[in-house]
Amino acid sequence: MTLPGQLTPPPRLLLGPGPSDAHPRVLAAMSLPLVGHLDPYFLQIMNETAEMLRQVYRTTNKITFPISATGMAGMEACLVNLLEPGDRAVVCSAGFFGGRMIDVAGRTGAAVTAMEQPWGQPFSMDRIRETLQSVRPKVLGIVHAETSTGVRQPIEELGKLCHEFDTLLVVDAVTSLGCIPVEVDRWEIDAIYSCSQKGLGCPPGLSPVSFSQRSLDAINRRKTKVQSWYLDLSTIQKYWGEDRVYHHTAPITMVYALREGLRIVLEEGLEVRWKRHQRNHEALKAGLAAMGLTYVAPEGYQLPQLNAVRIPEGFDDLPIRQRLLQEFSIEIGSGLGEFKGKVWRIGLMGFNSKPTAVLTLLGALDQCLSGNGSAIAAANEVYRRT
Amino acid sequence: MTLPGQLTPPPRLLLGPGPSDAHPRVLAAMSLPLVGHLDPYFLQIMNETAEMLRQVYRTTNKITFPISATGMAGMEACLVNLLEPGDRAVVCSAGFFGGRMIDVAGRTGAAVTAMEQPWGQPFSMDRIRETLQSVRPKVLGIVHAETSTGVRQPIEELGKLCHEFDTLLVVDAVTSLGCIPVEVDRWEIDAIYSCSQKGLGCPPGLSPVSFSQRSLDAINRRKTKVQSWYLDLSTIQKYWGEDRVYHHTAPITMVYALREGLRIVLEEGLEVRWKRHQRNHEALKAGLAAMGLTYVAPEGYQLPQLNAVRIPEGFDDLPIRQRLLQEFSIEIGSGLGEFKGKVWRIGLMGFNSKPTAVLTLLGALDQCLSGNGSAIAAANEVYRRT
């Protein structure tokens, strides 16, 4: 076999659902030399990373650290630690990732009630209250930012509601952390997971999680071992906690990356970052509207970082996305599941939530969709007045 | 909170049980820009990586790819896909990682027979045959290179033996791949896992696995879903295989790293690489012997890449390791479990299996253990004649 040649990734502008481009400082951090996973220097790096994660999650939860795998492993970590056979769980699903949570929760042996509604609709608190009242689950799982539909699910009051029924609230923040407010303590979230490659501006590979004291108490009351050894919080936390007991070999370089990504987030400041995401979203939205593109998510529930829009009549999904990739080296996302071929997903996340990304994409889309330049004008109008 | 400063990892020489230093070309590959996980360029990178992995594993197994997490997730992936409640498994354990395999296998709900013997002893084929005969397990799990004891378990004939009893052979190659021969097809191995940070010269973060057709047939006959969604082969293989169905977001940068690491392995050639590991091991061993240090593993079963030696009388574990780290910036490993405080583990893996590493360590150890320079002389004697 002839060996493959040198790595020469094409320089993309990644405006899909993630990964988003990593910040150049993060990429630079990844080429630093390794240290051992029990090296005093690395233990300090772990402490600093965990402490910055707490800031970003707005929590004092002791158990706050990155799972050594991608976002979906974070979902699994939350569910397999909190659920065991005989438990009841309710999972809210109005999109692809809600559906996935049902699958993952079901594999714990818990009885899962799927609370479904049409893709793209946020859940009402009343409906959730009724379900909590009738099912009395140990866990309620919900997606904060549904990556398949671009819907923001309001969860500000949900933790309080869950706690009325002694239910633990598990939140999927894969697409929200670092882009829009996530307030773990104030919103009384009991377990939460995210990823590294979206709002935090790092490559994919880690899943930051955080667990409340209520969650830890529930885990301590388990009757069975956690089914996953790799994701068993009782032992991972001994490595990330003060004991420093060897569990697995931490992915050193990915932790370097996350630490640098978190530093960049906190240097900017969370509020400033959220506003930046909102402003670029509004400019993009104005531009898309000028070209006649409409959002899947209802007004008031649209995610600034994930713009799911209907593919306009007269245009096909794949040729446009291929042209964007090949001619302009811009990636946008296709629709998932029932939205395949009907929806595009445009990400403006972390490092890539910036005017140049918005204007570049609108300019290229204008060319592909035979626009008249009004998209750029509309976006710039937003930039001028905000 | 004041933000932590810039990352400044101390330049270590990593001679512990792993991570070993990554090759500089691998570190450079990690700072390349991201592409999407479904980008045509990345799909090509995945194909090339899988094909090189097949070469390194010496297999034509279609299902050969890196799990998106560290080595221990590879162990879990093999066991949770092959085992379900009601199955029987035998796990051979004569060290820390054999013990861990018992724990992981037990969490599948299978009935696990732990075949234990004193740490540091290889298993005899006769004993394994007797156990297979009496238990008739679906799976036999064994560690090829036991990282806690430095013992090489001969497994050349084990696959054939297992297949006499319709048993699937699962092999832990975490510390062997890229350092000593691993012949998946010739040895009839049914499922195997390794890591990125040892013999392959990459950072930790991925676990290359390979599954035989026998394994896939067994998986197809499962009555229950695989308990782990993240590690469920039936869906991951659709992403790594021809379908390219989205499962999780691959850790792009880590795959870049692995691809570069595998390229370096194959450029050198496996046989040359194995000889290099053997030669540096012999030099190290001669030097350690000159200082009176003895191996845990019996003669003929010593791993060249993981030298577990007894801490000499009159010296304490921690002060010496701390001095090596602080004065010389060299990391060696402590003993695990029952070997804690009694054993040092010296890794010469991948990029770090080289004369400069051997001589540097021996020189520093000579200073710490009040030697007379005979260690260096003994090592150089080996180098001169081999």
Helix content of chain A: 40-55%
Instruction: Determine the mean pLDDT of chain A.
Output: 97
CATH superfamily of the largest domain in chain A, please?
Answer: Type I PLP-dependent aspartate aminotransferase-like (Major domain)
Oligomer: homodimer
Q: Based on helices, strands and strand pairing, what is the structural class of chain A?
A: alpha/beta
Assigned CATH architecture of the largest domain in chain A: 3-Layer(aba) Sandwich
Give the tally of structural domains of chain A.
Answer: 2
Spatial strand sequence of the major β-sheet of chain A: 2-10-9-8-5-3-4
The rounded distance between the terminal residues' Cα atoms of chain A is 57 Å
CATH class of the largest domain in chain A: Alpha Beta
How does this model look, in words?
The structure is a homodimer of 386-residue chains. The first copy, chain A, is α/β, with parallel strands linked by helices. Chain A has 2 domains: 24-266, Aspartate Aminotransferase, domain 2, CATH 3.40.640; 270-385, Alpha-Beta Complex (Aspartate Aminotransferase, domain 1). The first copy, chain A, is 41% helix and 15% strand. Chain A has helices at residues 24-29, 40-57, 71-82, 96-106, 125-135, 158-164, 213-220, 233-240, 252-268, 270-290, 317-328, 355-368, 374-385, and strands at residues 13-15, 63-67, 88-93, 111-116, 139-143, 145-146, 151-152, 168-172, 191-193, 207-211, 306-310, 330-334, 343-347. In chain A, the strands form 3 sheets. A 7-stranded mixed sheet of chain A has the order 2-10-9-8-5-3-4, with helices on both faces. A 4-stranded mixed sheet of chain A has the order 1-12-13-11, covered by helices on one side. Chain A has a two-stranded antiparallel sheet with strand order 6-7. In chain A, helix 10 (270-290) runs parallel beside helix 12. Chain A is globular, with a radius of gyration of 21 Å. Chain A starts with 12 loop residues before the first strand and ends with a helix. The model of chain A has no long low-confidence stretch (mean pLDDT 97). Chains A and B meet through helix 1, helix 2, helix 3, helix 4 and helix 9 of A and helix 1, helix 2, helix 3, helix 4 and helix 9 of B.
